[in-house]
Amino acid sequence: MASLPPFGAAAGRILSRRPTIGIISTRSPCLIILRPQARSITEVERQNRQLNRSMARMDKLETPTASMRTNQTGMIEEVAELLLPSTFVTPPFSRRPSIFTDTKNRIEFEWVRIKIKAQDLVSRYLARIWHSDPFLRKDLIPSAEALHRNMYTAFARGDVDALSRICGRDLYNTFRNRIISRPANVQFSWKFSGYNSKSRVMSHKVGMLGQGKGDENSIRQAVVRIDSTQALIKGVDGKVVKGTGEPTRTVEYIVLSKRRKEGIPEGPWVVWGTVPESGMDEIKAHGLPPQGGDSTVSGSGARWSR
User: Per the database record, which ranges form the Tim44-like domain (predicted)?
Assistant: First the structure.
């Protein structure tokens, strides 16, 4: 029989001592052997009972109680009264940073504006997929114009009931407090003359308030630019106060809000308030938490306190 070459002989010796099961291990044998710990049947039963009690407590934590659900609902309702984050109202070109003399701020301004617009589109697209909400709202501008006229007309007349159907909670409370504090001998009349330009949607987004795809709790908000000519007439003891009633051109950014709740049809548009145009201060402070509607009412609303 021919002898094996050196490599073949070494391989033969290794294979002749190979284990019958498993693979060859290069680890050195363990010199410490741990003795198995024997447990009695009663101890096993005790540990099983303890495990079952722990699992039961975890189930209770995972299942929300009635008070937890109430608190969660209350938190959702409070969030629904806020202005959605990153609401951006683009000003005209004349009030943006100059591309020639303030190039850095202009680039930053446009970048934030485009990014927020893209986020708004994504939020509406997800609402379309998850909740079958229309991507476009053809009723948005007509609703904004009608609510704008009805709101100021009702406020001038002191019609609190009408305002409760037109306004959101915070704005309604602001108007209601002003009506209550209005002297009995003071009257207001609001006159609408017409629109100076076509109303435009400046912002339109959806905020998901639920826990995922199947949860329909959401809020839809839109900002509509309304350029109108209007007049505010003030009377005291039935006589018109001199200097009031002059037609004034007013540009307002009306914020509309619409709620969607689980198992309930979508609510109507209501007026959240008004917001100013976005500027560099807002660009620098991008991402700050929203404020309540009663503290951001601007535009012609301040005239009613006179």
Answer: 122-276
